[in-house]
Write a structure and sequence with these properties.
Layout lengths: L5 E5 H5 L8 H12 L4 E4 L4 H10 L6 E3 L4 E3 L5 E4 L4 H13 L4 E6 L4 E3 L5 H10 L4 E2 L13 E6 L4 H11 L4 E6 L2 E5 L5 H12 L6 E5 L5 H6 L1 E4 L5 H6 L2 E2 L7 H8 L4
Parallel strand pairs: 1-2, 1-12, 2-3, 7-8, 12-13, 13-14
Antiparallel strand pairs: 3-4, 4-5, 6-7, 6-9, 9-11, 10-11
């Protein structure tokens, strides 16, 4: 790249290695970007509460896009932009899934709360372990009036994920629905996806998305990878690697650092 106006990175499977840690060379890469005045932002399906521990553990201070594009927060954790679902709207999706007896565990995310039906569910316990925070057992109606839902997440058995995604997409065509891992399906308000939020942040920074580099590893990263100069991690599915402009090493082998060095960005 002749000029890099900014760098975006997905978190799970990209910024984090397979042990859910940030590699030392990845931290070094971010520090070098900061030294050069090149903006860096994380872009994730995670909620803000699931991103904060990563920033704090590694001493990072940067803007981030959460809930697959439903929220944009600055480096001071102030909301720059948001678009979520009304509580009634999100509740209807959950009720339908339960009526259909879809084999999944659901999660609902507001700006500062993570609501689940049953914290004892092994799938929820595993998710808590991965993200490092605890969910709150309850219902969407238990949230303060007016709080929006920025994401619903379905945790599925891997062999059922595609089937459930298809059923949800058919029943709720006006919503943004994307598979973010072999077991996770994300449901957002209509028109919400990572690329839309990246485009907003680029306008905020006064740069073109084509001047930026974006790293990702999964299907919910694809639009972002195509909007920017896209870099697929080596651990990404073959379909994602084929559609990206660049392919780098996997998330366990310094993929972000290596490509930034190769392109003489750092």
């Amino acid at each position: 790249m002749k000029r890099c106006g900014g760098v975006f990175s997905d978190i799970d499977g990209t910024f984090l290695d397979s042990d859910h840690k940030v590699l030392p060379r990845t931290i070094e890469a971010i520090e070098r970007l900061n030294e050069q005045g090149i903006p860096f932002a994380l872009v994730s399906a995670r909620s803000p509460g699931e991103i904060y521990p990563i920033l704090e553990q590694y001493g990072l201070r940067c803007p981030f896009i959460a809930c697959s594009g439903g929220l944009i927060l600055d480096e001071n954790r102030q909301v720059l932009w948001e678009q979520g679902m009304e509580q009634q709207e999100a509740g209807e999706i959950i009720r339908w899934a339960e009526e259909q007896q879809l084999p999944l565990a659901w999660c609902a995310y507001s700006l500062d709360q993570w609501i689940v039906k049953d914290r004892k569910d092994p799938r929820i316990r595993k998710e808590e372990e991965i993200v490092g925070i605890c969910a709150r057992e309850g219902s969407i109606s238990s949230l303060p009036e007016g709080d929006r839902i920025y994401k619903l997440m379905c945790i599925c058995d891997p062999e059922k994920t595609l089937e459930i995604e298809e059923k949800l997409t058919e029943r709720f065509p006006g919503h943004s629905i994307a598979k973010s891992s072999p077991i996770l399906i994300e449901i957002m308000a209509g028109g919400i996806h990572k690329a839309r939020a990246v485009e907003w942040l680029c306008r905020f920074w006064g740069i073109s998305p084509r001047e930026t580099l974006a790293f990702g590893d999964n299907y919910n990263d694809l639009e972002m990878l195509q909007l920017c100069r896209g870099a697929a991690m080596g651990n990404a599915p073959e379909e994602i690697r084929q559609k990206a402009e660049y392919v780098t090493a996997d998330h366990d082998h310094d993929g972000i650092y290596r490509l930034l060095k190769e392109l003489s960005i750092i």
